[in-house]
Amino acid sequence: MNSSSAGPSSKPRVGSSQPSDSSFKRKRGVFQKDLQHMMYGFGDDANPLPETVALLEDIVVEYVTDLVHKAQETASKRGKLLTEDFLFLMRKDLPKLNRCTELLSMNEELKQARKAFDVDEEKLATME
Fold first, then answer.
1. Where are the alpha helices (DSSP H) in 28-93?
2. How remote is the C-alpha of 77 from its chain's centroid?
3. In this predicted model, what pLDDT tens digit does every residue of 34-44 receive, in sequence order?
């Protein structure tokens, strides 16, 4: 039994040009430059085909949207979406979890450094 012949699925197929029922209109091409640079960094051509970049953008947006919806479902009991909801969803994918944890700690360090820098500037301004 093939599940694709059982009727229309609620999720669009990857590469399909038909948007899902729950999708909203979004600006296409917002991430094109970033994705082109990332593709080049991972060994693709410096100027990949626009169709390839568009397909990759669709896949990334669908993944992130799906992840946010799952995190929202997890957080719905609490009523507030937290960073920990995303970490909970990534708990079984250790490379992603480790990278997210690393980026979050780096973000916290940057916040502390900016805060210290702002305090130093305020002290210098009051001394003059």
1. 32-41, 50-75, 83-89
2. 23
3. 999 999 999 99
Instruction: Enter the pTM of the model.
Output: 0.66
Q: Which of 66, 39, 41 is CA-nearest to residue 50?
A: 39
Gap between the Cα atoms of 91 and 100, Å rounded? 11
* Residue 57, amino acid: E
CB atoms within 10 A of CB 83: 11
Helix axes 32-41, 50-75, angle to 10 degrees: 100
The H-or-E segment that residue 10 falls in is none
pLDDT at 78: 86
Contact criterion met (CB below 8 Å) for 71 and 89: yes
How far, in Å, are 14, 17, 22, 87, 88 from residue 6 at the CA level? 18, 20, 21, 35, 33
Closest CA to 93 of 72, 54, 59, 67: 67
CA distances from 70 to 30, 54, 73, 85 (A): 23, 24, 5, 9
